[in-house]
Write a structure and sequence with these properties.
By secondary structure, the protein is α/β, with parallel strands linked by helices. The protein has a domain of 82 residues: Rossmann fold, CATH 3.40.50. Helices cover 45% and strands 13% of the residues. The chain has 4 helices and 4 strands, in the order H-H-E-H-E-E-H-E. The longest helix is centred in the first third of the chain and has 17 residues. The chain starts with 10 loop residues before the first helix and ends in an 8-residue tail after the last strand. The mean pLDDT is 92.
Length: 126
C-alpha cells in the first residue's frame, strides 16, 4: 500500500501532484473556455454526459450548474428532457473517440442544440 493510499502525502508526492495540475492548466485553451462560457450562460437548458472518471467529473459539473440556477440535466437520468433549439449538449470525451458520446452529440446537433465537448485531443472527431 502506498503512502498516498494511507492518507499520508510526503513533499515529493505533493510536488508531483502539483506538477501534473500545472501541466493540465498549461494545456488549457483559455480562448475556447471564454467562448464557451457565454454559450452556457445563455442556454435554455444544459444536458451533460461523460463516461468513466471524466463522467464522474462531468456529472459533478452538471450538478454544480443546477446549484447555480441553470436548468441542467444528466443525459442518462430518466427525467432528462429532449434537446432542441436553445439547448446545449455538454460532454467530456478525453480520447475524442467514444462512439456513443459522438452519436449523442450528432443527434443533439440534428435537433438544433449547440454541442460543447471537453477533450484531451482537440483535433479528434469530438
Amino acid at each position: 500500500m502506498s503512502e498516498l493510499s494511507k492518507g499520508v502525502v510526503d513533499a515529493a508526492q505533493a510536488e508531483g501532484i502539483l506538477t501534473e495540475l500545472r501541466q493540465t492548466f498549461d494545456r488549457l485553451d483559455y480562448q475556447a473556455v471564454n467562448e464557451v462560457l457565454p454559450v452556457l450562460r445563455s442556454a435554455r437548458r444544459i444536458v451533460c454526459a461523460g463516461v468513466g472518471r471524466e463522467g464522474l467529473t462531468c456529472r459533478a459539473f452538471c450538478m454544480r450548474l443546477m446549484h447555480l440556477g441553470y436548468d441542467s440535466h444528466w443525459v442518462w437520468d430518466d427525467t432528462a428532457p429532449a434537446l432542441g433549439e436553445g439547448d446545449v449538449f455538454f460532454f467530456t470525451c478525453g480520447s475524442g473517440q467514444i462512439a456513443h458520446l459522438l452519436t449523442i452529440a450528432q443527434l443533439a446537433k440534428d435537433t438544433g442544440a449547440t454541442v460543447v465537448c471537453v477533450t484531451g485531443v482537440p483535433n479528434s472527431d469530438a
